[in-house]
Write a sequence for this structure.
């Protein structure tokens, strides 16, 4: 079936902090070198993404001929004092437990709430050029979760969405009007990102 509007959401490739299971927010860390990342679409001309280097580096592999439009509003959640720390380091701290229990209303110290993240990423989607039918966005686990909370057909909480580095999330709207009005998408499909040499 053809859809009027499609947004493709892709999480950046893994970084050292991702492998070490650290909260990686606004720290500008590169992806791990020598990952076998495929070309998804060599004909793509424009890709939107976070202004952090890990997204730009990932987009260069997936969409090698596209112009990268970096947008600060697509950044990962700002983890504040929890930045680059692990669950094990934080689990016994009450302010951390409070944030885990209600990230929508509670921010990490010197960080931002999920409500703030959702507002800024939604504003980015509203500001995308109106003359396109297919949008490709390379972003972060948190910002993609926030967009799925806002636009996926099925309502889920932030923690219920599991956003992999190896999948892409395609949100389809049946009409441009539905998309422009900020309605939930008509259909969501999740597709694996195939590593070079695999079928």
């Amino acid at each position: 079936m053809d859809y009027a509007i499609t947004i493709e959401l892709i999480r950046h490739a893994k970084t050292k902090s991702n492998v070490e299971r650290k909260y990686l927010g606004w720290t500008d860390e590169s992806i791990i070198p020598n990952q076998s990342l495929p070309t998804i679409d060599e004909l793509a001309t424009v890709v939107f993404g976070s202004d952090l280097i890990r997204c730009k580096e990932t987009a260069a592999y997936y969409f090698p001929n596209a112009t990268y439009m970096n947008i600060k509003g697509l950044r990962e959640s700002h983890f504040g004092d929890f930045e680059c720390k692990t669950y094990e380091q934080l689990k016994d701290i009450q302010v951390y437990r409070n944030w885990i229990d209600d990230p929508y209303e509670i921010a990490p110290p010197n960080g931002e709430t999920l409500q703030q993240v959702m507002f800024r990423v939604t504003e980015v989607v509203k500001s995308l050029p109106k003359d396109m039918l297919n949008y490709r966005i390379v972003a972060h686990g948190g910002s993609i979760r926030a967009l799925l909370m806002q636009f996926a057909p099925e309502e889920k909480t932030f923690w219920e969405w599991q956003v992999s580095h190896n999948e892409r999330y395609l949100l389809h709207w049946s009409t441009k009007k539905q998309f422009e009005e900020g309605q939930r998408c008509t259909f969501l499909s999740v597709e694996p990102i195939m590593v070079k040499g695999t079928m």
Remarks:
- Residues 76 and 142 are 5 Å apart (CA to CA).
- The chain has a mean pLDDT of 94.
